[in-house]
Design a protein that fits this description.
Helices cover 37% and strands 17% of the residues. A 6-stranded mixed sheet has the order 10-11-12-13-14-15. Strands 1-8-9-7 form a 4-stranded mixed sheet. The protein has a 3-stranded antiparallel sheet with strand order 2-4-3.
């Protein structure tokens, strides 16, 4: 693109969405590994989250960018040869292209030394080294293994309730001495040795110097975001401020990113040298709460004027928009948000609340209805129902009803239960 020293808010939105793949065409054929790889090359990583109210968090960014696709595609990309993805702590727990693994070895080394890791787990690593080594030897001899495969291991629901076996496995995972082989349908990890999981070309790649690796991660973040502040870039792979600022200065010096001025932004912004500015974004997409477009909340406010908070841990009576709320992107703006739940037993996608943003266009309900229908189809659900909660619910229910053109698939609205 033609480089500019100043960018307008509209240009920033188009650059940011283009960098995330929303200017690309949706495949007209069945989505394949090739399409998934294109998205991964754009976004750099997929955040993992165990909440399955609609679909697992790492599955949804591909749906947002590619439309309906086989839901086992990422599982196959992670567990079958040629392996495309591996799991590690990046933004949070994340799926990443296997080629990124060498760039994260410095983090693994620091974790083994007790740095950049949960304090309780670091203490466990220092005081239980003999036990940890015994668990490592078990994985080496019998892997892939789940925590529940160990004698006396009952498993636990949250990390605060981990057994010593689970702590040992997680310490080894942080340190890079074991990795995720695959996951069971219950989402439980199966652990194995990296040399038995990762492609030989990755295992044999020399470990780069720390500065080079961090600079590589910052470059991935800059390309994925298009235009960003230092804190945006730092957050993508959760680098420390000191490391991020040093590597950013180096990227500026080599011309990989260019300082730019953006009206309304207090902090210095940086434009990736390969960033493109689409003439127009024409996409409609439901975004997961952990989608890179919105996962950094202050960035979402700066770019879209969209104030977003996840209210899963907020008491029900204090929630503003609902339990599991997905933003709705239409064109280059976020115009609505919906509280969704996949009712798998009832085979329907439930819209428990629907709210529109200030200035949402007249066709918001129609466009959102189309995306909800596509999501229901993707999830193998038969119906979409809408409660009366939210200022967009009435229009959305009417749009779903009036556009029900498939006899075998019903979309209707229901009254909110007391």
């Amino acid at each position: 693109m033609m480089q500019k020293e100043r960018l307008t808010p509209g240009e920033v939105r188009r650059i940011a969405l283009g960098a995330q793949g929303f200017a690309d065409r949706v495949p007209e054929t069945e989505v394949t590994r090739k399409h998934a790889r294109r998205v991964l090359d754009r976004v750099g990583l997929l955040q993992i989250d165990s909440v399955n109210v609609v679909a697992r968090a790492h599955l949804m960014p591909l749906f947002s960018r590619l439309g309906p696709y086989p839901t086992d595609l990422l599982e196959r990309a992670q567990s079958r040869k040629p392996r495309m993805l591996f799991e590690y702590w990046a933004h949070e727990a994340s799926l990443l292209p296997v080629e990124t693994q060498p760039l994260l070895r410095w983090r693994m080394e620091r974790a083994e030394a007790g740095e950049g890791i949960y304090k309780g787990l670091a203490h466990f690593g220092r005081t239980k080294r003999t036990f940890i080594e015994s668990i490592y030897e078990e994985v080496a001899a019998r892997g892939p293994l789940a925590a529940s495969a160990f004698d006396g291991e009952k498993g636990s629901g949250g990390w605060w309730g981990w057994s010593d076996t689970k702590r040992a496995l997680e310490w080894l995972f942080w340190a890079g001495r074991i990795t995720t082989h695959s996951r069971r349908p219950s989402f439980e990890r199966l652990y194995d040795l990296p040399e038995r999981v990762l492609p030989p070309s990755v295992v044999d790649t020399p470990t780069p110097p720390v500065e080079d690796a961090q600079r590589g991660l910052m470059a991935i973040a800059a390309r994925a975001l298009g235009v960003a502040t230092e804190s945006d870039l730092r957050d993508y792979f959760r680098l420390s401020p000191a490391d991020s600022k040093a590597r950013l200065g180096e990227l500026v010096e080599e011309g990989a990113v260019l300082p730019v001025e953006i009206k309304g932004w207090r902090n210095q912004a940086y434009l990736h040298r390969d960033a493109q500015m689409p003439r127009r974004i024409r996409r409609a997409a439901l975004l997961a709460p952990f989608d890179p477009v919105v996962w950094e909340r202050s960035r979402a406010e700066r770019i879209f004027g969209f104030h977003y908070r996840i209210e899963i841990y907020t008491p029900a009576h204090k929630r503003t928009h609902g339990y599991y709320v997905l933003p709705f992107l239409l064109g280059e703006r976020i115009v609505a948000r919906v509280d969704l739940k996949a009712d798998r037993a009832g085979r329907r996608l439930s819209v428990r609340a629907a709210h529109q943003e200030t200035g949402a266009p007249q066709d918001t309900a129609e466009a959102l209805a189309g995306e909800l229908r596509r999501m229901a189809t993707w999830l193998g659900l038969d119906d979409v129902d809408v409660t009366h909660k939210g200022d967009l619910a009435g229009k959305l229910g009417a749009a779903l009803t009036s556009h029900d053109t498939a006899p075998e698939r019903k979309f209707h609205r229901t009254r909110r239960r007391a």
